[in-house]
Write a structure and sequence with these properties.
Layout: E1 2-4, E2 13-21, E3 24-31, E4 34-38, H1 42-52, H2 57-68, E5 76-79, E6 84-88, E7 99-101, E8 105-112, E9 115-120, E10 125-128, H3 132-171
Length: about 170
């Protein structure tokens, strides 16, 4: 398995799992085509990835709160243009927190009390220690954030098209 110092989340990143090694919190990153161990915690990878795409994790959290009113276990729009939206399974301050890509969740089901089975876009499946109710709530919050951002992008594009139309009409 590949071990690296740094990694930025991409649209091919499916999940970030904490990996405890020699009193350190590293991350097992699940990509569409394999796994990578990163010598950073999941929250550090989230922060570095947000910065890579031009915003801080704090700023992304504030954006989520402003757009959909969620501040507790908030979904994060790491890079909306590439549909990179992640959500935490528990409080991001908890070292056991797993981050999941909304784009890669294909199926989910209740397994037993406090456990949910998730099937990812590449067919990989995992059982997570999160109640199905909580998982579905996080999934819906993230969908709400994606929808709100996409609506704003589309509204901006419609406005630009209308302004171009008016300009062309004025010139003719």
């Amino acid at each position: 398995m590949l071990i690296v110092e740094h990694l930025h989340i991409t649209r091919y990143t499916m999940a970030l799992f904490p990996f405890f090694y020699d009193e350190h919190i590293w991350t097992k990153v699940f990509e569409e085509d394999g796994e990578i161990i990163v010598k950073k915690s999941p929250i550090e990878i989230m922060e570095q990835s947000c910065l890579y795409y031009g915003a801080s994790l704090k700023g992304r959290r504030e954006g989520t709160k402003h757009m959909i009113g969620i501040s507790h276990k908030a979904p994060i729009a790491v890079e909306p243009a590439n549909e990179i939206f992640f959500f935490p399974t528990i409080s991001p301050n908890d070292p056991q927190c797993i981050w999941l890509s909304h784009l890669h969740i294909r199926h989910h089901e209740h397994i037993q009390l406090g456990k949910t089975r998730v099937i990812f876009s590449n067919g990989m499946d995992m059982t997570l220690c999160i109640s199905h109710h909580s998982f579905v709530n996080q999934l819906h919050r993230t969908a709400q954030l994606r929808t709100k951002i996409n609506e704003r992008i589309e509204a901006r594009e419609r406005k630009m098209m209308y302004l171009l139309y008016l300009r062309e009409k004025e010139l003719s």
